[in-house]
């Protein structure tokens, strides 16, 4: 089945709503709740769009795995991340929240990174307080920068957004919980809020009580929950997360994990039996339709082209 782009919301007073403006409106609505699957490339994003999610999340771990074939140890560069973000954001008007890691340097670099994400068309980004030699937030041994450097990172993001005249949503993520404890993590989130970040993100929440506490301590500032299965955070479903008070839940491995299992099973079958047995919807036509085949043919025909007639 072809995945149709989600239409832009329109206003009688102006042009179609930009995805960043839509994401901002969604997180500011106390009655709204956003469930965003992690996507790591154009195909996984197309599948998620076809299912009908109202927002997508570009996972840094998935980007590193898919583009570099490496573990999430801060190895993906700004060009790696921006290239992937641009691809994902270009597929539809559905808001995309994208991982921006540590910002890739000092304040000038953070500002440059923010500008690059804005140009890429993402609706939101999250920046964190780990040191440059960062790692997945659900691995051990994390280290974080000092409060002054953290404040400067957030301030640089906000200033870059202002200069660009953008609505991009800035999410402040702290990884201080593991190393410095809960109160220090809360203090860092409060600093980010003071500097103009739009949403908070406490990485590595350890139990449901801590989930409820952070939502209460930061209220009414909207909070995002990172649901990494088999990480340090216990699994919480959509209904529970919403009842706790989170405004958004991201599932970074929602496409990467199933893709790994399916690819491994298929390849093991090929090695064992010498063939791959796929259902008809996985043939060329079916896969290409997921990737917008019919839409591309229609665009060509409407322009008077005949290159793809009869495809």
From TrEMBL:
<keyword id="KW-0670">Pyruvate</keyword>
<dbReference type="Pfam" id="PF13714">
    <property type="entry name" value="PEP_mutase"/>
</dbReference>
<dbReference type="InterPro" id="IPR015813">
    <property type="entry name" value="Pyrv/PenolPyrv_kinase-like_dom"/>
</dbReference>
<dbReference type="GO" id="GO:0046421">
    <property type="term" value="F:methylisocitrate lyase activity"/>
</dbReference>
<dbReference type="InterPro" id="IPR018523">
    <property type="entry name" value="Isocitrate_lyase_ph_CS"/>
</dbReference>
<dbReference type="InterPro" id="IPR039556">
    <property type="entry name" value="ICL/PEPM"/>
</dbReference>
<protein>
    <submittedName>
        <fullName>Phosphoenolpyruvate/pyruvate domain-containing protein</fullName>
    </submittedName>
</protein>
<dbReference type="InterPro" id="IPR040442">
    <property type="entry name" value="Pyrv_kinase-like_dom_sf"/>
</dbReference>
């Amino acid at each position: 089945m072809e995945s149709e782009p989600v239409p832009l919301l329109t206003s009688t007073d102006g042009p179609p709503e930009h995805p960043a403006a839509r994401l901002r409106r969604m997180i500011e609505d106390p009655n709204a709740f956003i469930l965003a699957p992690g996507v790591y490339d154009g195909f996984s994003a197309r599948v998620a769009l076809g299912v009908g999610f109202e927002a997508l999340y570009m996972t840094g771990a998935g980007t590193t795995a898919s583009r570099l074939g490496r573990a999430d140890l801060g190895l993906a560069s700004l060009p790696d991340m921006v290239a992937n973000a641009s691809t994902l954001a270009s597929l539809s008007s559905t808001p995309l929240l994208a991982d921006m890691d540590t910002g890739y340097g000092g304040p000038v670099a953070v500002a440059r990174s923010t500008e690059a994400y804005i140009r890429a068309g993402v609706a939101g980004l999250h920046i964190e307080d780990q040191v440059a030699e960062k790692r997945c937030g659900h691995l051990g041994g994390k280290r974080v920068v000092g409060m002054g450097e953290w404040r400067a990172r957030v301030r640089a993001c906000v200033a870059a957004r202002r200069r660009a005249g953008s609505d991009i949503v800035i999410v402040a993520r702290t990884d201080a919980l593991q190393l410095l404890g809960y109160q220090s993590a809360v203090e860092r989130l409060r600093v980010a809020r003071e500097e103009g970040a739009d949403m908070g993100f406490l990485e590595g929440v350890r139990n449901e009580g801590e989930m409820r506490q952070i939502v209460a301590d930061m209220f009414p500032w909207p909070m995002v929950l990172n649901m990494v299965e088999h990480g340090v955070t216990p699994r919480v479903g959509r209904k529970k997360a919403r009842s706790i008070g989170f405004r958004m839940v991201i599932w970074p491995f929602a496409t990467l994990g199933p893709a790994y299992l399916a690819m491994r099973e298929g390849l093991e079958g090929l090695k064992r039996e010498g063939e791959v047995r796929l259902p008809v919807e996985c043939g060329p036509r079916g896969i290409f339709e997921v990737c917008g085949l019919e839409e591309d043919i229609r665009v060509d025909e409407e322009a008077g082209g005949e290159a793809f007639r009869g495809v």
